[in-house]
Each structure stands twice: as C-alpha cells, then as structure tokens.
C-alpha cells in the first residue's frame, strides 16, 4: 500500500516536533514543508521550505498539518479543504467560533477528516485515567479540577491564556468526563501589558452533573500541569508533565447496616502510583489522524470537538467581561 503524502505548514516551536514525528511515522511520507519565516530550527532537511499553503498544496497531498499562529488557521484550512486535503490543525481550532464553524462545515461538506491537535488527550497519564474511570475504579465522578500555570511564553502573540492553555483543560475535562459543558463562570486579569488575558480562573458544571474548576495562567514561575478527579472511591491525580498517575483511595469502607450507613465523610486511605507504558503523545496523536484518514477506528479529536472547546473558552472570556454565568 502506498504511503500517504503529508505536508506541514509551520516549523516553529511546535511545528519542528511535528516534522520529527511525521518522519518517523509508518504509513506516511513527509513530502513538503512550508513556512514564510524560513527554517529557524533546521528541521527541513532535504526538503525545500516553501513560502505558503498554496505552494504546499501544489506538491500534491493526501494530508496536511497546520502549525502556524492561530489567526492564520482558517485561511490555511479552508484552502486545504478546497483542495481535498485531510487536515489536522493545531489547537485552538481558530481565533473565533465563527471562523471555526466555517472550517468544520468546509471539511464536512467534502467528506474530509478535519482534526484538531488537542494533544493532552494522548498524554499517557490521562489515557490511563480515562481507562480506569471507564472501568469503574473511581465510582461516580464528582469533580474535576485542573491547574495549568507557568512562565509567560513570548512566542504566543495572537491569543490569550484561555485559548492557548485553557483550551487544553476544557477539552481534556469534557473528554475524561464524557460530557459537555453546561455552565461556566470565570474571572481573568491582564498583567503583562498585552490586549489578551494572562490569568484565568473558571468554574462550571458539565451536563452530567460533574463540577469543574480550572486555574490557568502565564504569570507563575512554577510550572504545573495537574488534573485531579475526585469521586465516590477517592481521587486520581494526573501529572501530565511527567505522565504519572496516582490514586488516593478513601479510607472508609461501605456499610450495609442501615442504621449506621449515613455518609460520614472520608479519611486517608492507600496511595497507589501506577506503572504503565508512556508513549509520546504527539506520536499517538498523529497515529490517530493517520488512521482516521485511512477510515480505521480512531480516537482523533474532530474539528467539531475542537469547536465545542473553543465555544467554552469564548464563554470564559464573555463571563469574565460581564460577570455573568454563561450557559451552553
């Protein structure tokens, strides 16, 4: 079977990693690279660095990866859709829900795979967490809390911390809980002198009743990437920086004697740190995209899912502006 011809536009901080993984991925052949800014990281190898998406399309592609600044996502994606190219766009899907909707429709109308690079779904700690929740290890899920903070990344200039970092947590929360957002209330601050927010606190509820809370900022010298899921039998803590998953079990035992079976709280129980294979998330993401293009069963993040995540992020920004709860 012939390998799928894939092109990459954008070989900056994230694009360089896409280039490395695509070269190592079975079933695909990286045949073209484009970046109007050249090749700052020296990843093009023997490939010519093309100037734009049109020249990338002209090479003849089955698939493409878009890893350019968010404000250019829609233009590149619509041109790739018109050319019949299956496309994975880095998160967030677009700068606005309106742009994202046009992208979703363009790929759907042509029967093409449109995907979004919400890479945290492929983090081994979250993959294992999701598997164990589905297995019933936690019982009923009550609450999901995420903390994602660290130093300001000077390379991000066209979106705020909500769309850049917060979109990770909103997507992974909905995916782990297998439910969409019902409400969100948020606060944001602007401390770095930019037009976009650099700190965000958001709380909300999913349609299945799980309550959620997100702490996201670019103003901390301490890098943190944590997801805490609390439920009937204890709490899972996933550290996506290290790929570790730990379970803190409740120290109480279920009581069957009716007269004393009222809930009395929990105490500290056993703590278990799990051992499991830790595959590179970006490789797993590209395998899912490749399999989706081939028509195989795949857990690729669709553009429709990426659009729902962006809608929640815009709800965060709207709530912070108005001081009101936003409903979806």
Automatic annotation (TrEMBL):
Residues 4-118 form the Gfo/Idh/MocA-like oxidoreductase N-terminal domain. Gene3D superfamilies: Dihydrodipicolinate Reductase, domain 2, NAD(P)-binding Rossmann-like Domain. GO terms for molecular function: nucleotide binding. Belongs to the Gfo/Idh/MocA family. This is Gfo/Idh/MocA family oxidoreductase. Residues 130-327 form the Gfo/Idh/MocA-like oxidoreductase C-terminal domain. InterPro entries: Gfo/Idh/MocA-like_OxRdtase_C, Gfo/Idh/MocA-like_OxRdtase_N, Gfo/Idh/MocA_Oxidoreductases, NAD(P)-bd_dom_sf. It comes from Cryobacterium tagatosivorans.
